[in-house]
Amino acid sequence: MPLVVPHATGRYTVAADALDRLGAYLPDTGIAPGPCLVVTDETVQRLHGDRLLGVLDVLGFAPRVLAVPPGESAKSLAQLGALYDAALSSDGPKVNRQTAVFAFGGGVMGDLGGFFAATLLRGLPLVQLPTTLLAQVDSSLGGKTGINHATGKNLIGAFYPPRLVLADPAVLQTLPPRELASGLAEAVKHALIADATLATFFEEHLGNALAGDPAVLAETVARAQRIKAEVVIEDEFETGRRAHLNFGHTFAHALERATGFNPAVLTHGEAVAVGMRCALRLSKALAPHLDAERLDALVARLPVPPLPPLDVDDLMAAMQGDKKRGAEGLRFVVLEDVGRAAVVQGVPDALVRDAWTAALD
Question: For 133-164, what is each residue's pLDDT tens digit?
């Protein structure tokens, strides 16, 4: 069943359904056929571009494809400027405020294409068409868009809700194993913070999911989408419960910084997997009754490549640049129980160091 996500200025639908079913959802978006922009990367364009263009053509759209190089480096001011230049060039129909933007790709395209839509002509209608598991279960929902800055990830951006999120689980069959595992890390995170029954599902079926089982992946997408939707409905602008979605991320962002934001070394999902193991250690220190060993055993099944030598002092220093740092210092999301999370501040450095040491051992 599709989900409806209300927000401050309207609502949007979130569906796990075939890309070919796009026409069934567009009438509720207010987007009419006509000229449109497809922001994608060259890899997704090669694998799935013809299919999307065929769907749009049948629906009466005249798409102009703005394809960028794949990878995190595309989330830059330079690449955003190139998109503006391409969209506003004299080639093709003139862009106006009814020109829809279809962000077609993984989390990078969702962030970049979403921020592009949010800022061009002060806002164009946006449709998120996520093609990676991480984007389907997490980043495409909630309206966060943005690009990176030299000092950190996602430091320039805006909350800009889409008109529709349509996630086709079938496209996941073309994902490389590392990308699939990265998305599963975010789905497991959703389970740990909000749904004990989904945690049990992963204990039973994580191996099938990692192997690309279509039925397991379809259920994963649908159930994880529901959790993310429930959280963002409750807390659109991350002033409360939405912060729980950062379980493991304070550690993960420090790992990414320490490894140069290089996905060849460590993808975001892999960093989250390591970060969750750190967060579980910290959770156990603060809530001794928590069965952290059981949960750590689940997270440890997510494949992570061997890490380069990392110094705990360097990682502690890298944490200080986290954009979610509050007036009282770093905020950590910890588990009080399976499916129940909390945000804590003022955590002693000794406990944080112990969490790093245990996870990196």
Answer: 999 999 999 999 999 998 878 899 999 999 99
Residues 222 and 3 sit within 8 Å (Cβ to Cβ): no
| The CATH number of the domain covering residues in 3-173 | 3.40.50.1970
Global confidence as pTM: 0.93
Three-class DSSP category at 151: coil
| Active site (catalytic) residues | 122, 144, 186, 228, 238, 242, 246, 249, 253, 268
Burial class from Cβ neighbours inside 10 Å (0-12, 13-18, 19+) for residue 42 reads: middle
- The CATH architecture assigned to 177-360 reads Up-down Bundle (1.20)
Coil, strand or helix: which one is 156? strand
Count of CB atoms within 10 A of residue 128's CB?
A: 30
Take residue 126 and report the two structure tokens written for it: 């946006």
Hey, what are 135's tokens?
Answer: 């984007």
* Regions of the chain short of the pLDDT cut 70: 321-328
Distance CA 128, CA 272 (A): 23
Which part of the chain has CATH 3.40.50.1970? 3-173
List pLDDT tens digits, range 159-196.
999 999 999 999 999 999 999 999 999 999 999 999 99
Q: Which residues contact 52 (CB under 8 A, 6 or more apart)?
A: 19, 38, 63, 102, 104, 129
The token duo for 122 is 């002060």
SS3 37: strand
Q: Are 320 and 239 spatial neighbours (Cβ–Cβ below 8 Å)?
A: no
Q: Give DSSP secondary structure letters for 288-356.
A: TTS-HHHHHHHHTTS--PPPPP--HHHHHHHHTT-TT-BTTB-EEEEEEETTEEEEEE---HHHHHHHH
Burial profile 15-28: b = 16 or more Cβ within 10 angstroms, e = fewer:
bbbebeebeebbee
Phi, psi of 65 (to 5 degrees): -90, 125
Would you give the DSSP letter of residue 8?
A: T
